């Protein structure tokens, strides 16, 4: 990909949970990069490892989770080599994060103003008075009505949409270079979601930050992202620019996902489904992880894990169909998915 | 020939708010405020709307899981609100509900066999010796295996658990199933499986669905007709095609335009609403949407618009509760964003 500058580069990241049942590979060799000023969407269903990937970048994993291997380079610096105190000065300052549920990530006993001001006091060494003044500016920026009064409000006094705006104000207070948004609008109603997505988009343009958007909603991805990584069972199965991903998806999982989505803007008679379910993380298939559910799977797929290969159009896909070693009949995944499925 | 299976008239559901030292009632949450509609046998009627619009409350009121404040509910010609508790319990054989969270709605200490058996026992649908075969048949019907009958809910995934919920509802041969956000908690690939299953069951068993959901993609897929609710009131009701292709109420239009489309090349004019949904404790006077509506006038602040149809370009059965359907349609009124 012809990206002039890379904001963050993740290389062969491996994150595992060590439980009494043994090692659970939540993220298993994930590599991608986010070009400066662009938005990368990470999509996947529950258990695909998308949230663990973002927590690994922030180094916010809790026991028994551990980063087992790989490299994370942020603006040229190796994040995994940093001390905890160095990490703390990056978090909330140069890399910020927004979570799904603002009620659980805001502190209920401090006012919104205090919580925004805190970042300025910690990262910029401002006095409380100066910090509160800047906090007021942030509330205005994120479009909270009567910001002066809201500065003194507690989280429970705000609606869901307002709380999410307050979270964004906290996250963006120190003008981060990278914003990681983990399902930022999932808990919100659609009309409020539209407000928040527009806000995030506008602020990104204004502040020139790079963004990682983690979501399960393909509609949100289509509307906000420049590039998309599709994750399945701890691995990236496809990485492409947003137009290619939606118009000529290559991986059978991506195709299945798009075909199983009920659309409000077009009529569909029967939804295509992806049969079966996601494999258990402690019992992953040996070959391609999607093979047990894939309508095209051959013996090769069941036995050997394909690599994430770069295609002629610079996009990446992890599937045997696109390699010389493919041992099945010639297929067009997008067009033949339905017929292959019904066999 | 279509027959009306369920008819809801002027349904109101107010929840009292108690306060003060004496715990007196100080106000009401007007969750559902004067709602009327009918469901034809064999069709799927959906109720959509955002949180707090009263869609789930409506579903619960029909089953009398919460006693409605006032109104009439008639099912198959019988007045549901006139029944006593015992009669109502019997009635629920015909009226089943599938909830959103399959983790919370199935007893974790019962095996699937016990769950299904209990439902059949209470409603006395089959003699004991025939239940075994019926249970196996039910498991097949919902796409599970008969060998899974003796498992506990925790041994199933979310999608499978929702199938158990469906099997339980089907076990008593209901006529109407209320699906309250039944697929909302599921991943897309699993959601599609359950939606297809619900459609197949409807065809085979002649079921009627009242489908309550917030996801308009799901609603377009499953419904015959759609009701849009906002703050306890119906703002629009129409057959699926009219509602999605020719919406008339400004709220329906905004709702449709706010949904992200999974196609990056489809650029659309998004209408972004100002502000939040007002509180149902003290809802706005007149049209409840007037505080956020780009077309609102003084009339909207004062007069409550009735559901009505219009001469211009509205299919039979299509109604919207707006004073200005014609003016907005003709372009005489322009939005004020």
Automatic annotation (TrEMBL), chain B:
<dbReference type="Pfam" id="PF00005">
    <property type="entry name" value="ABC_tran"/>
</dbReference>
<dbReference type="InterPro" id="IPR013563">
    <property type="entry name" value="Oligopep_ABC_C"/>
</dbReference>
<dbReference type="InterPro" id="IPR017871">
    <property type="entry name" value="ABC_transporter-like_CS"/>
</dbReference>
<keyword id="KW-0813">Transport</keyword>
<dbReference type="GO" id="GO:0005524">
    <property type="term" value="F:ATP binding"/>
</dbReference>
<dbReference type="Pfam" id="PF08352">
    <property type="entry name" value="oligo_HPY"/>
</dbReference>
<dbReference type="GO" id="GO:0055085">
    <property type="term" value="P:transmembrane transport"/>
</dbReference>
<dbReference type="GO" id="GO:0015833">
    <property type="term" value="P:peptide transport"/>
</dbReference>
<dbReference type="GO" id="GO:0016887">
    <property type="term" value="F:ATP hydrolysis activity"/>
</dbReference>
<feature type="domain" description="ABC transporter">
    <location>
        <begin position="6"/>
        <end position="256"/>
    </location>
</feature>
<dbReference type="InterPro" id="IPR003439">
    <property type="entry name" value="ABC_transporter-like_ATP-bd"/>
</dbReference>
<dbReference type="InterPro" id="IPR050319">
    <property type="entry name" value="ABC_transp_ATP-bind"/>
</dbReference>
<dbReference type="InterPro" id="IPR027417">
    <property type="entry name" value="P-loop_NTPase"/>
</dbReference>
<keyword id="KW-0067">ATP-binding</keyword>
<protein>
    <submittedName>
        <fullName>Peptide ABC transporter ATP-binding protein</fullName>
    </submittedName>
</protein>
<comment type="similarity">
    <text>Belongs to the ABC transporter superfamily.</text>
</comment>
<keyword id="KW-0547">Nucleotide-binding</keyword>
<dbReference type="InterPro" id="IPR003593">
    <property type="entry name" value="AAA+_ATPase"/>
</dbReference>
């Amino acid at each position: 990909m012809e990206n002039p500058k890379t904001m963050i580069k993740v290389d062969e990241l491996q994150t595992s949970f060590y439980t009494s049942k043994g090692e659970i590979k939540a993220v298993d060799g994930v590599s991608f990069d986010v070009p400066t000023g662009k938005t990368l969407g990470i999509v996947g269903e529950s258990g695909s490892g998308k949230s663990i990937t973002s927590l690994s970048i922030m180094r916010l994993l809790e026991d028994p989770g551990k980063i087992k291997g790989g490299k994370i380079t942020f603006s040229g610096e190796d994040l995994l080599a940093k001390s905890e105190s160095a990490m703390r000065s990056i978090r909330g300052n140069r890399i910020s994060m927004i979570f799904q549920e603002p009620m659980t990530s805001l502190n209920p006993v401090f006012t919104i103003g205090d919580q925004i001001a805190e970042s300025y006091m910690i990262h910029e060494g401002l006095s409380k008075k100066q910090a509160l003044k800047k906090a007021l500016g942030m509330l205005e920026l994120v479009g909270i009505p009567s910001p002066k009064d809201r500065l003194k409000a507690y989280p429970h006094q705000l609606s869901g949409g307002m709380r999410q705006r307050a979270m964004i104000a906290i996250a963006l207070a120190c003008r981060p270079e990278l914003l990681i948004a983990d399902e930022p609008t999932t808990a919100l109603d659609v009309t409020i979601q539209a407000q928040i997505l527009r806000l995030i988009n506008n602020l990104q343009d204004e502040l020139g930050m790079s963004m990682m958007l983690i979501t399960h909603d393909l509609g949100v991805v289509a509307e906000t992202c420049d590039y998309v990584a599709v994750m399945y069972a701890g691995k990236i199965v496809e990485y492409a620019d947003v137009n290619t991903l939606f118009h000529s998806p290559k991986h059978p999982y991506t195709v299945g996902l798009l075909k199983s989505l009920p659309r409000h803007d077009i009529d569909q008679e029967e939804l295509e489904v992806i049969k079966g379910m996601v494999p258990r993380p402690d019992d992953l298939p040996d070959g391609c992880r999607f093979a047990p559910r894939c309508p095209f799977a051959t013996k090769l797929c069941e036995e050997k894990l394909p690599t994430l290969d770069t295609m002629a159009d610079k996009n990446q896909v992890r599937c045997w169909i696109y390699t010389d070693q493919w041992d099945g009949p010639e297929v067009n995944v997008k067009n033949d998915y339905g017929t292959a499925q019904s066999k | 020939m279509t027959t009306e299976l369920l008819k809801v008239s002027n349904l109101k559901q107010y929840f009292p708010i108690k306060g003060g030292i004496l715990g007196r009632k100080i106000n009401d949450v007007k969750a559902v405020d004067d709602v009327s509609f009918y469901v034809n046998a064999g069709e799927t009627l959906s109720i959509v709307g955002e949180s707090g619009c009263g869609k789930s409350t409506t579903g619960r009121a029909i089953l009398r899981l919460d006693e409605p404040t006032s109104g009439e509910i008639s099912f198959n010609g019988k007045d549901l609100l006139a029944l006593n508790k015992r009669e109502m319990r019997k009635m629920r054989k015909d009226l089943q509900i599938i909830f959103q969270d399959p983790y919370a709605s199935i007893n974790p200490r019962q095996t699937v066999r016990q769950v299904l058996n209990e439902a059949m026992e209470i409603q006395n649908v089959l003699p004991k010796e025939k239940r075994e075969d019926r249970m196996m048949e039910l498991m097949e019907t919902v796409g599970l295996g008969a060998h899974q009958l003796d498992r506990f809910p925790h041994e199933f995934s979310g999608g499978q658990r929702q199938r158990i919920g469906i099997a339980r509802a089907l076990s008593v041969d209901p006529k109407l199933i209320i699906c309250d956000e039944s697929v909302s908690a599921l991943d897309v690939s699993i959601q599609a499986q359950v939606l297809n299953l619900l459609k197949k069951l409807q065809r085979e068993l002649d079921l009627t669905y009242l489908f309550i959901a917030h996801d308009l993609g799901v609603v377009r897929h499953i419904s015959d007709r759609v009701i849009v609710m906002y703050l306890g009131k119906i703002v629009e009701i129409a057959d699926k095609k009219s509602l999605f292709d020719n919406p008339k109420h400004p709220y329906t239009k905004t709702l449709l335009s706010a949904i992200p489309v999974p196609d990056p090349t489809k650029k659309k004019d998004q209408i972004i609403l100002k502000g939040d949904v007002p509180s149902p404790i003290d809802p706005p006077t007149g049209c409840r949407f007037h505080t956020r509506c780009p077309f609102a006038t003084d009339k909207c602040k004062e007069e409550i618009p009735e559901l009505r149809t219009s001469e211009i370009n509205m299919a039979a059965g299509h109604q919207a509760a707006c004073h200005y359907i014609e003016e907005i349609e003709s372009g005489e009124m322009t939005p004020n964003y």
